[in-house]
Write a structure and sequence with these properties.
single chain; 405 residues; mainly alpha
Length: 405
């Protein structure tokens, strides 16, 4: 009996030990599986936290495509709406040019800004009428003598054209010998060409309408004053942003006005210097060519080149001597070199100097978009755009890129 009880107790203890070992094994297996699941799941969670590299590449490509589309859309809008945008841009530049006068009248003469703007526009109209009356007669004389001028130029260049004419006649005879003879009927086409004065008379109402629109816009821009700036301040969200908008807008407006005033005075002085030089050289209509040089000098490179070509024609048709004829364009070339290399950097400074390659591409772009008005407005627009890029932090890389510092 005792032996049987002892054996039964040992059997029960052994079974309990086996159950305990089985529970421990099951617990260890569960821990192992949980650890494996954790080890397997952790890289997946970590990999899902960071976006793949190809997603960032696609996002950059989409941004570049959208930027290109926006640029092309803006260029197309400028080309289509040129009849509306040219007067607006010209009026905006003129208002920046004349705003120091209106500000002076408001500050020192205690005149309301609307009255000061009106007086400034009336004075501008008076200057334009006086200039047109002074230059109308020389311009009419030059247009009337244009056929004689061209015939004189052809006579001067006949000696150079003679070998070319002989070569053309020889090639024509060779073509007649090589081609078979066939009866041909000659048809005469008579084309009636309208004269220059008729074209000017036809386009005069449109030009007067554009001038009136520009003058009205100039008055509204001058009389509004800081109204647009106040609206920008109201749109800005916080106090810091409002102060930043005010400081940037005022600095940009002041620098753009100062630049346009200085450039206009420099070009006016260049026109006066050229007129005085032409008087000393004995060239007719010196005031006319001085005014042409003053206006065309707003277009960098292209404007002075056109003036040099026109003065070369004037010199060859006015003087018989080659030295006197070349002295006319050479005088203007010397004045432009003096103005571009010494006077303009000394007055305006190198801070607003522009990259010549960028200027040339800019002239081609605006000349293609707006024609001759675009070429004349391209230089001031590029300089004003660089001033804006200088004061706006996001556009500062463009300021560095288009500069020539």
């Amino acid at each position: 009996m005792a032996n049987n009880a002892h054996n039964l107790g040992s059997t029960v203890n052994q079974s309990r030990e086996n159950d305990t070992s089985l529970h421990r094994a099951d617990a260890s297996d569960a821990d192992t599986e949980q650890t494996e699941v954790t080890v397997i799941e952790r890289p997946a969670a970590e990999s899902g936290a960071t976006p793949p590299a190809h997603a960032e590449t696609n996002l950059r490509a989409i941004k570049r495509a959208l930027f290109t589309i926006v640029v092309l859309f803006v260029i197309g809008a400028f080309y289509i709406a040129q009849d509306v945008l040219i007067p607006i841009v010209l009026a905006l530049l003129l208002s920046l040019l004349l705003s120091p006068i209106v500000t002076g009248l408001e500050k020192f003469a205690r005149l309301p800004r609307a009255l000061g703007g009106l007086l400034t526009v009336v004075a501008l109209v008076g200057v334009m009428i006086y200039a047109a009356a002074s230059l109308a007669q020389p311009a009419q004389n030059w247009i009337a003598h244009a056929p004689q001028t061209m015939s004189r130029i052809q006579q001067r260049l006949r000696s150079l054209r003679e070998p070319i004419r002989k070569a053309q006649e020889a090639s024509k005879k060779i073509e007649e010998l090589t081609q078979p003879t066939s009866p041909t009927t000659a048809t005469t086409v008579v084309r009636q060409e309208s004269g220059l004065l008729a074209d000017m008379a036809t386009s005069m109402p449109r030009a007067l309408g554009s001038i009136a629109a520009v003058l009205l816009l100039v008055y509204f821009f001058l009389s509004s004053g800081n109204g647009f700036l106040r609206r920008l301040v109201e749109v800005a969200p916080g106090l810091h942003e409002k102060r930043l908008v005010v400081s940037i807008a005022r600095e940009v407006q002041q620098e753009m006005s100062r630049y346009l005033v200085m450039v206009s005075l420099i070009n006016f002085g260049l026109g006066l210097a050229l007129a005085a030089t032409l008087v000393l050289l004995g060239v007719p209509n010196p005031l006319l060519w001085g005014a042409v040089a003053m206006v065309l000098n707003f277009a960098p490179y292209v404007g002075p080149a056109c003036v040099i070509f026109a003065l070369a024609l004037v010199g060859f048709t006015t003087f018989d001597s080659l030295g006197q004829a070349l002295a006319v364009p050479s005088a203007f070339f010397g004045l432009t070199v003096l103005e571009g290399q010494l006077l303009t950097p000394m007055i305006i400074g190198h801070r607003l100097s522009l990259n010549p390659t960028v200027v040339f591409v800019w002239l081609l772009l605006w000349g293609w978009l707006w024609g001759i008005p675009g070429i004349l407005l391209a230089g001031p627009l590029l300089a004003c755009f660089r001033i804006v890029c200088q004061h706006v932090r996001v556009l500062h890389p463009i300021f560095i890129m288009i500069g020539d510092d």
